[in-house]
Write a structure and sequence with these properties.
The structure is a homodimer of 312-residue chains. Chain A contains 9 helices and 17 strands. Chain A has 312 residues and is of the alpha/beta class. Chain A has a domain at 2-118 and 163-224: Carbamate kinase (3-Layer(aba) Sandwich), CATH 3.40.1160. The first copy, chain A, has an 8-stranded mixed β-sheet with strand order 3-9-2-1-12-16-17-15, sandwiched between helices. In chain A, strands 8-4-10-11 form a 4-stranded mixed β-sheet. In chain A, strands 5-7-6 form a 3-stranded antiparallel β-sheet. The longest helix of chain A has 26 residues, at 74-99. Chain A is globular and about 55 Å long. At the A-B interface, helix 2, helix 3, helix 5 and strand 11 of A face helix 2, helix 3, helix 5 and strand 11 of B.
Amino acid sequence: MRVLIALGGNAMTAPDGSARPEDQRAAVTAAMDAVAEVVASGAEVVLTHGNGPQVGNLLVKNEIAASVVPPVPLDWCGAQTQGTIGLLILDALEAALSARGGTPRVAALVSRTLVAADDPHFTAPSKPIGRYLPADEAAAMIEHGQSWQDRGAPGWRRVVASPDPIECLEVEAASVLLAAGYAVVCAGGGGVPVVRTAAGPLASVEAVIDKDLTAAVLAGQLGVDVLVIATDVDAVVLNWGTQDAQAIGAVSAGELRSLAAQGHFAAGSMGPKVEAACRFAEAGGRAVITSLDRIADAVADTTGAAGTIVTP
Amino acid sequence: MRVLIALGGNAMTAPDGSARPEDQRAAVTAAMDAVAEVVASGAEVVLTHGNGPQVGNLLVKNEIAASVVPPVPLDWCGAQTQGTIGLLILDALEAALSARGGTPRVAALVSRTLVAADDPHFTAPSKPIGRYLPADEAAAMIEHGQSWQDRGAPGWRRVVASPDPIECLEVEAASVLLAAGYAVVCAGGGGVPVVRTAAGPLASVEAVIDKDLTAAVLAGQLGVDVLVIATDVDAVVLNWGTQDAQAIGAVSAGELRSLAAQGHFAAGSMGPKVEAACRFAEAGGRAVITSLDRIADAVADTTGAAGTIVTP
C-alpha cells in the first residue's frame, strides 16, 4: 500500500499558531510519532507539509533587514522552509522509527511544482501572506512591485498569486526512493512554483501553491492508494460552529462538491482540503480528511469511522 | 566512473563575493554548464557546495529582525541554504543538460552530517561567521550564549564551532538516486551538523562544517573515483603572490602535507581544500583541486595538467 500524508500547519506549529523553533520541533516530533505508525505498518509513505507561518516569518525578516541584506524572492523562502522542515522531519521520523525497532530510511527532496505561466491567479493575486503593515509602509512595498491589500483595522497585507499545481517535478526521484524503502518528504509547502520560460528552461516564480492541491496532484502522479489530509479536526463538519454541527463520514466527491457549493467550507482552511480530496477521488482514488492522531486508523479504514472519506 | 564535485563560493556568488539573488543565480548557471559536461560524459556525479555568504546573510536577518520574528538556530540557516542553492542547481543543471539533448535527472537532498558531541571545536569555537558588530552589540549576543571575538578595527565577529565531519547521513539515499541515473546534490554547506544525543536520537546543533572536509568523507563513503574540489584558481600554488609562485601539478598526499606544514596554504581558504584532498588521497582516492571551468578536464586528466592532482 502506498500512502501520501499531507501535514497541515498543526504538525509544524504550536496550537496557538506560534512558529518559534521549539514550537516547530515539538509539533513535528509529535506528528512523526503518528506517521511512524503508518511507515512501520509496511506502507510506502510520501509526506508533504504546509509552510504558511514559516514563510510568513521569512518574509518579515526579508523586509526588516532589507537595507542591510538583500531580500530573497518568495520562491526562495519556500525552498528555505523545505530545508528546515525537511531537517526536522528527518530527525524526528528516524527517531520514531528507531524507537519501533526498525532501520529508518527517510529522505527529503528539494521540490518544485510546475504551474502555468498564464495561470489567471498571477494577474489577480489573492493569497494573503506575512504580517500586517500600516498604509504608508505597504505603499513602499507596492512601489517595489508587490501587491498589498487594505484589510481594514489590522492594516494592509501582502497578497500573492496561488496558481494551480500542474505537475510535481520531483516525482520520479521520489518514486526511486520509495521503491528503495524510503519514506520521502516531497513538495513541501506545495512545492516551489516554477514555470516554463519562453526559452524552454524552468524558472521559479514568486507565488505560493496550496499544499493540499499539490498533494492531490502528487498522489495522482505516484498512484497512491490513499491520500490522507491531516489537520486539526477529526473530520469535515457541516454547519461548523452551530448546534447542527455534523461530522461527515463517507461521502462521494459529487456530494461533497454540492456541500461546498452551499458554502459549508471556509476558503482559507477547509475549502482547499475538500477541493483536493474531491480532485483525487474524482481521479479514482480514496482521500481522507482527518486529525493527526487518527492518521494510522484513517489509512486502514474504509467506513468513515476515522475521518471523512471521499470516494469517487 | 563516479565523481564528486565540491563547488566553492565562486560557484554561488559574484566575483566580488556578493550574494544577491541575481548574483547567486548567475554564478550557479555558469557553474552548471561545467558540471553538465561531466554528467553528459556519462559519469555518475555527486555535487556538494559551500554556503558561507548565504548563511552569513541569514544570520544577519535573524539578528536584525529578532524583536519581531523568532530567530532560528544556525543549523536551520544551513538547511535553508540547502533549499535555495539546491533549487538553483536543479533548475540550472537541468537546463544545461536539456541543452545538450539528454533527459535531465537531478535531485537535491536535505542532508545531515554526523559530528562528535565531544568534538574539541565545540569548546573552542573559532570559525568566524556573519557581520562585524560594535562591542556593545556583540556583548548583548554573548549574553544570549553566543561566542564573539574582538577582531580589531572592523569590530567584533561571531565565532562558531566547525567540528570534524564523521559521516554523511544521506549517503544511502544518494546512492539509490545515483544508481538510478541522477546527479545528486548532497551535503550542501558541509551538511547540517547533527550529534547523537544521550537518549540515542540525532539532533542538529549550532555549528558549521567545512564543506571540503565533508566532501572528502562523502567521497569515501560513496567510493568515488575522483574528488574534484572546484574553486577560483587553476591549481594549488606555492609561494602564492610572490615572484616565486609555482603551480603544483601532480603531488602525493605526503608531499602536499609537508608543504602545508611549511605554511604555504591559508587556513581559511586553500588550507581546508588541501587537507580534504590529502585525506581522500590517503584513503586511496584521486583528488583534484582546480578551477570551475576546468572541472571536465580535471576529471579525465591524471597528469596534473588540469589542476593539482593529489594521489596516495
